[in-house]
Specification:
Order of helices and strands: HHEEH
Number of strands: 2
Strand order of the largest sheet: 1-2
Shape: globular
Structural class: mainly alpha
Strand content: 5-15%
Helix content: 40-55%
Largest sheet: 2 strands, antiparallel
Number of helices: 3
Length: 67
């Protein structure tokens, strides 16, 4: 799977953007944020955004390989 940066995505992502990319619900993303499971950027106290570089690193860390 090409990384977000390889796809040309360099701006901060919203909850909806990330849900579309990861093919999951916004609720799942919000749960991951509240549990501290996923890296976030908070430009304002109640604003949640995601750095494509941090999300790529997180995905690589969480990746499971099957032999």
């Amino acid at each position: 799977m090409p990384s977000l940066l390889e796809k040309g995505i360099t701006e901060l992502l919203t909850v909806g953007d990330l849900a579309n990319i990861l093919k999951c619900s916004k609720g799942t993303i919000r749960n991951w944020v509240s549990q501290g499971y996923i890296p976030v950027v908070r430009p304002a106290p109640r604003m949640v955004r995601f750095s494509p570089a941090q999300i790529n690193a997180w995905l690589l860390e969480k990746r499971t390989t099957f032999n």
